[in-house]
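Anyone else keep sequences and structure tokens together like this?

Example one:
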Amino acid sequence: MTTICTMPDHIFLDTEYKQPAIHQHLAKHIIISLSDDLTVTFEGERKAVCKGIMIDANVPHTVAGRENRMLVFLIDATSTVARNMNHDPLAGEPFKVIDGRIVEQIREAYKACLPDRFESEYAEFSEFVFCRLSLNGKSTIIPDPRVQTALGFISQSADIDGAMISRLCENAHLSQSRFSHLFKEQTGVSLNSYLTLAKLRKAYQLMLEGETITAAAMNAGFGTPSHFSAASRKYLGIAASDITGRCNVYDIKCQRLFES
């Protein structure tokens, strides 16, 4: 059984994370093994054997463990957590191994979350994780008001349709190329990648509300259900069809206390 939580600044999974092929995600991520060591292989056969790791966005890798059950945090690139990861611990490196003592503390905190109160306890657990990883300090707010406005507009939109980029550019009074460049410069992620994440989040929320995969995909702004499934596999390593019936999905809307 997979557990998925969508938060304003990240998506969390408790899952059997089986990705034998080299792949990369659109987000920075944190991976914690719930059992034995992980073997993380990067391009060029560079390897890390550890119990927990932080990996930058768009870094090709594969993760394997004997039992494969892991906690995975996919971090929104525009969030305080992601920006703090840029400064320390990543500081320009593609990955950072997490101290084994911290991993054990995170495991114990997760085990203490009661199943029948998981939705109410998860926010506190995730805050504990980010505090232990020193990712909870204040960070510089995205300075350009045009990008701030765009992020708010995306968050509040009912769906992310094909005209979204045009509307964002019109609101910012910039051409598509200039606004896309500005967005990546300010957030560290491409506009198209960020919109894909936003559509995934909305589709998961709609499925949580009882919509079918097809309806959730179309209403979130994906062209077809197959596009939704492909994006879900690329981003989470889970097919959209696996979410229905085999997953507990929670949409937790509280804001992080340490957000600036």
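And example two:
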Amino acid sequence: DEAHKWYFTTARLALSIMVFILPIAYDHFVPEVAGDLRWYIMQIGGLALLTLFFIFSYEKNKKEKTLTLNCKQPFTVWMALITVIFGALTISWGASLPNNWWFFKNLFGYALMFTFALQLRHDTWYRNLIWLLALSVSFNAVLGILQFFNVTDAEIVAAIPLASWFAETFPSLQTMKFIGFFQQSAPPAGAFANKNLAASFMVMTIPLFAYLMFTAKNNIRLALSSIAFTLATIFLLYTRSRGSWVSACAVIVFALIWIAINKPVRQTIIAHFSLNKSVAFLTSIIIVLWASSFQSNLGKHGGQNFHSMSTTVSEQFTSVADIQKGELATRLAYNINGVDMLLENPMGVGLGGFHTIYPKYFNSSVVTPHPGYNLSARPRRMHNDMFQAFVELGVIGGLAHLLFFVSTLVMAWKIQTSSKSDDTVKILSFFTLLGIGGMCVNSLGDFPLQMPTAPGILWLLVGVITALYIKYAEKPWFIGKNIETKLPREASVITFASIAFVALSFITYDNYQRREGTLYLKPALGLSRTGTNNDTTIYMINKSMEKYALNPRAREIWGVIYMSYKPGSTPQHKLMITDADRKEKLLEAIKYDPNAQNNLINLAMIELRATQNLVNMKNIPEADKHVKKAIEYGERALELSYYTPNAPTVLAIAYLFVGKNQEAYNNLKLALERNPQYPPALEYMERLKPLIEKGEVKP
């Protein structure tokens, strides 16, 4: 569209920048494992592009008086739209508004990545996008390889000539980090949160670099693409991520089958195999095999053991079949119990709602092993992203989400068998399909699609396939038809542009507030995890909630921090926090998280203390109200409890207040079965001995 070149140039440049920085963006002031900044980029960048699109639409067809809605779209577009619609709808009935809202914004960001990869379609631009990915992924790979060998920033400075002089000349450089900048939870991870997420991203992007090698038109491009391919493959091996390795093997098998049954692709690949490209691939393989022989010394790092890092590649490969029984049993429990969740909630529990709702189903069909579910930990993710989409979006939304990706198989086939496609297009669609397939297979046993980087690029790649399908398939299948309305076109487009701009402004402000809250949340989390619940911790969590009250992590620990605070216990505990303060925070916490057994137990304890105080004051009617609430919270907590003695003990104490001595005994017995040395249960069981001797309580 030469008449509106400004739009396409600006939009393609903006999306290109987003693609380049997504794998490396990091907010150093908010060391966030989840990488909120990358989600912000997609949400805000996508809405900015949407606003720009409506401005372009306003200029494009000024002669038209009425609005025509382009509703004739490929099947994949409709699946994306249905997925987003159900993501929005589930907010109204979802299990947790804070989670539902946050993950819907993320889904909307992915959908915008898909939309503009499709709408801005241009073959050369797609190649350039992959080159940009090669740059940022190569940075990740180099960083990950250095982490694998446990290289420190000090060692890098010592190895670089004149680095010491620069550090002395510019003192600020002395505090800069390269290796430790991204603060991974499990290295080697490059710029990702952990090594498994980095590995899954390598599985998706390595086929794209193979595409660059196959289509390189000169030796310089071949060399550069070979470097990206080699670095990414070495990094994949160094992650020691078995799930990603299995996914990579599945991609190789799928590629061989596809080549065998798809004659146009087979002929195209054979035609592009020249001597220099064969040498490049062979050289890459030799380097990868040589690099795989090295061992990491990350077995011990800062006192923390990183499992699997002391194994060789062959040992890790053979251990795929020997996955730890506890780990496998935990993931199977999530999936099997997930079926029950879906059957009881066919319309879904809302995006991000799995974490909130799972406690109700932790033993619905099979008991979740203790490491995967207990008083202080519960699963945030199912470790099966495709199935989790069904649980959270419901049957219809989950099916649309699945078909969105499955449809790329049909589209790629039609692109490659079309007489309109040249060799470059066939190879691009083939290797893009391999990247999509690798990520989708990986997501069946892990949670890469719950994190920011992978799904954004994955949805963009589906947009690339869809665009090639529209442009090159012989008879692309469209569903729907264009609708000519009687609405004035100019006014309608201005309205759409205004809505997009308002949404952009609102989401930008919402994300800014979330970041402001997270600045205080991270220190609060760190202090709380070390058991330091003092005045500083209270200040940090209160400021976090004041800045942004919809952060699920802040809401979860708010009541926990207040319950753990002991006024006057140290000079750092000067605040006069009462049970009324604690109760207020806990009630707010369970408002959107009703199945948090720790908060329910804490509420029951507060009600029991209030009951005891009122009994001492001879105010029996009020005491009766509080003990009934204690029983309510205790019974709810017991339904969610399996391994720990806390819930049955609290409930037993509440029963004693109302004279239900037999029920109290039964719960104390259960508590002692779970922990025979639990002091509160032993104490109250001792109090019941006279009643047992009298026969009023039957053991």
